[in-house]
Amino acid sequence: MAKKKILHIPAFRMNDSGSKGIKINRLDPEIDISGEHSIASPHRDDHYMLVVIEQGKLNGNIDFEEIGLEGPFLMMVFPGQVHLLTPQTPLYGWIIDVDRAMIDQEMREDLETRCKYLLPLHQSPSDAAFQHILKLLNVMQDLYNQPLDTRHKAIAALLISVLHIINGLALNITETASRKKNRPQQIKQQFLALLYQHYSEWKKPSEYAAKLTVSTAHLNDTLKQLTGRSTMSIIQEHCVREAERLLQFTDLSTKEISYQLGYPNPSHFIAIFKSQKGITPMQYRSSVN
């Protein structure tokens, strides 16, 4: 019998909304969380996943980046990132699943910009910020286990407090200047937020510039100043990263991937991929499989 063709990377929704968009799993060898989808095989989620580990070792891969971590640490996996996580020892801590709608746009932009490739944040057990997060998570856990219809409002407020602390930790690492966002940083964050939503539809820098109400030249100059890359280069890098995921974790053909990413001309897509990676999509697939 022919092997069934893999057309999609496994993607999971929150199978139980928990407290209206927030699901809390306490990690403890004595607590059974069976029934959850496995995090030990490559997949992606449509929601954020906050991992806070007090004790234990964890290996894995997030968007092709190998990780080997020992608690205490915290990290966030973002919607769409292909990941697998494998405990090496018993883990003590939390996994918090959070629906996108629970986090306002400004916070999402901050987390995407500062934390997506920064976390994990390793902590000392005595660090004040880490201790504050643990206290908030314990209160959230207590509320989560109570059969109260109004509990979700309190849990949501506590969650936002946790995210503000994480954002502050990342800010201390990534910014040594003023904490106040300037206009170029705002443009960059807003552009990235649009890119994550529309990369398969919008391929022209002018489309993003129009939505941001700036000129195409100004958007390009701003991104070059902050990242060293042009608007077009960032758009193409994002599309190629998604192509890498599909090449490694599905059996879709180059043509099918090209169409899925919004490139109606596969030859054009192949040329973009080769310019970014130095090899063709099929050569890339052969190198990783």
From TrEMBL:
Q: Which SUPFAM superfamilies match?
A: Homeodomain-like, Regulatory protein AraC
InterPro entries named in the record:
AraC-bd (IPR003313), Homeodomain-like_sf (IPR009057), HTH-like (IPR037923), HTH_AraC (IPR018060), Tscrpt_reg_AraC-type_HTH (IPR020449)
Domain of life of the source = Bacteria
Please list the residue ranges annotated as the HTH araC/xylS-type domain.
189-287
Listed A to Z, the keywords are: DNA-binding, Transcription, Transcription regulation
The answer on whether this UniProt entry bears the keyword DNA-binding reads yes
Which Pfam families does UniProt cross-reference here?
AraC_binding, HTH_18
**Keyword Transcription recorded:** yes
Put simply, this protein is called AraC family transcriptional regulator
